[in-house]
Amino acid sequence: MANTVRALEERGLGATQRRDAWWLQPVAVAAGLGAFVIYSTWAALQGNNYEWGPYLSPFYSPLLGKDWWPFSPAFLILWAPAGFRATCYYYRKAYYRAFFADPPACAVGEIAEHRYCGETKFPFILQNMHRFFFYVALLLLVFLWHDAYKSFFFENGIGIGLGSLVLTANASLLSFYTLGCHSLRHFVGGKLDTFQVGGNCTMRHSCWKGVTRLNEHHMLWAWCSLVMVGFADFYVRMLASGIFTDLRLL
Amino acid sequence: MSEMVIRVSHGTTEKMEEKTYKVPVGPGMVVLDAIHYIQSHFAPDLAVRWNCKAAKCGSCSAEVNGKPKLMCKSRMDAYDQNEELVVHPIKTFPRIKDLVTDVSWNYRVNKTITPFTPPKGNFGKMYQADMDRVQEFRKCIECFLCQSVCHVLRNHEKHEEFAGPRFFVRIASLEMHPLDEASRIKFLKEEGGLGYCNITKCCSEVCPEDIHITDNAIIPLKERVVDEYYDPVQKIFRIFSGK
Ligand code: SF4
Ligand code: SF4
Ligand code: FES
Ligand code: FES
User: Fold this and answer.
1) Residue B212 region, left (φ>0) first, then alpha (ψ -120 to 50), else beta?
2) Domain shared by B148 and B214, yes or no
3) How many domains does chain B contain in total?
4) Is residue A58 reached through a cis peptide bond, with omega within 30 degrees of 0 on the bond before it?
5) Nearest ligand by distance to the CA of B55
6) Same domain, residue pair B69 and B177
7) Count of domains forming chain A
8) Are residues B184 and B160 in the same domain?
9) What integer pLDDT is reported at residue A197 of this predicted model?
10) Do B146 and B94 share a structural domain?
11) Residue A1 within any structural domain of the chain
């Protein structure tokens, strides 16, 4: 019953026998990450409208160099979260697929005949620095929680505004994202061959399990925290420029 | 009983062709059943490797509609009955004939890995928490679907410099074993080519045993390589602590 004869070579960008919409995910990721990079760069370049009442935009927190730094204070901060996300194991997957098409999706052809070094050569060998960005990100988290706490103290006393909730949600989501980091997972227990250290197995194992629980949804936290941090800046910016008025809940 | 059109790749690496067959589809039927039907009714010489028909031996790996799959675990009713189903051998390895590929490269790579090296004599207690972590890696059935889909092998053909996800899983099971005394970190960085993996996770997507290859084996190993080679703080700490 043989009736067709066809030879098939799967080479070149997008060449595949897959029939599903494999391109949908890389396109969505490229759109999402692209939009965030454009918005955050624009917001950082503004250098104003980052404070309103007790609220401070997370792009500008902690607020440094107001007196001596000639550019937008955001640039003193943003390199850290940018480096943290750029070297994050999840985002690496996301942008290698979406922006470098290496590969665009599983079992789908790549740009033909390009040199591939993976993460063995400059610049991608720098991905190995992820843990150092993690240390800084952890420090920033302390400031963001402080901002969230401060956001409940208005000029006329303690209260809850929509902005207080936004900044608290932002700090929470960033915590879930940061505390699910693979480098932390390694540090708290993954690096050990046995969790039984100094006669105490449960402590290291519990820490490792806790981080693992967050780590299993690392992609979800990565996206939720990304959207939220962008929204938090947007909300404060809208208040500061007088376009929105803060909804005071209490 | 409904019928489905199946396009199967025949031939060798040098000369391949696709042939189309009409196969009746019954309830519970899997792609491997369809291939067997073709073998018994139309093409007795169609070469296919299989053993258990229970997704446990890892023999029947193929690419169904372009996706690396175990044929015995791929239900026919999961596919659109009105469209042709396309079955090819796994890529990445040289084809011997039809759906059978020569995967012996994997066995050669396997031999280069330092085997389990326990201490001599009696050893202490084993802890459940430690065993739970390495147990996941023991589920591997060596179907090599992960090797087939990994773009470092599939598209970049780095067979000489890269061991591939299956062997990172094996190395993880040894490196994280509480009794193992050997270190394979240098091997991973140099001969094993762990740095070529850009953690794009296709291996994890296709693994029929649902081993979280990237999250639980590759990334933890990458972190161990960083400890050894890319972390100056740890290096200084090691000098002073004498470890
Ligand atoms: S995650 Fe790494 S090993 Fe797995 S398929 Fe991708 S490149 Fe290959
Ligand atoms: S790790 Fe999974 S996909 Fe790879 S050979 Fe083992 S069972 Fe197959
Ligand atoms: S792995 Fe994603 S934050 Fe570290
Ligand atoms: S026949 Fe054994 S895994 Fe399919």
Assistant:
1) beta
2) yes
3) 2
4) no
5) 4
6) no
7) 1
8) yes
9) 78
10) no
11) no
Q: Which residue has the tokens 């792609």?
A: B31
Interface contact flag, A196 B91, Cβ < 8 Å: no
A11 lies in some domain: no
Taking CB atoms and an 8 Å cut-off, how many pairs form between chains A and B? 145
pLDDT band at B202 (very low <50, low <70, confident <90, very high): very high
Cβ separation B65–A17 shorter than 8 A: yes
**A249 domain-assigned:** no
Q: Is the per-residue pLDDT at A149 higher than 80? A: yes
The answer on B108 and B85 residing in a single domain is no
Answer for the pair A144, A170: CB distance below 8 angstroms, yes or no.
Answer: yes
* Residues framing ligand 3 (Cβ under 6 A): A 88-90, 130, 134, 181-183, 218
Place of tokens 């960033």: A174
pLDDT of residue A199: 65
For the record, the structure tokens of B96 come out as 């011997």
Judging by DSSP bridges, how do beta strands B2-11 and B85-88 pair with one another?
parallel
Tell whether A5 is covered by a domain.
no
DSSP A111: S
My answer on whether B160 and B223 are in the same domain is yes
Are residues B80 and B109 both part of a single domain? no
CA B107 to chain centre: 12
The phi and psi torsions of A205 (rounded to 5 degrees) equal -65, -40
A53 to chain B nearest CA, in Å?
A: 41
CA B234 – CA B20 distance, rounded (Å): 60
Mean pLDDT of B67-71: 98
| Helix axis angle, A218-240 to A74-86, nearest 10° | 160
Four-CA torsion B130, B131, B136, B139, nearest 10 degrees: 160
- Domain of residue B212: give its range: 104-241
Final residue in a domain of this structure, among B46, B72, B101? B101
Distance from CA of B50 to the nearest CA of A (A): 23
* Among candidates A5, A96, A129 on the partner chain, residue whose Cβ is nearest the Cβ of B200: A96
Q: What is the pLDDT of residues A195-247, one digit of tens each?
A: 987 766 688 999 999 999 999 999 999 999 999 999 999 999 999 999 999 99
Other C-beta atoms lying within 10 Å of the C-beta of residue B43? 17
pLDDT digits over A82-139, tens only? Answer: 999 999 999 999 999 999 999 999 999 998 778 999 999 999 999 999 999 999 999 9
Residue where a domain terminates, one of B77, B101, B125: B101
Same domain assignment for residues B207 and B137 = yes
Test site for ligand 4: of B30, B56, B206, most ligand atoms within 8 A of the Cβ: B56
Which residues span the domain enclosing A178? 24-240
Instruction: Residue B166: give its domain's CATH number.
Output: 1.10.1060.10
First to last CA, chain A: 77
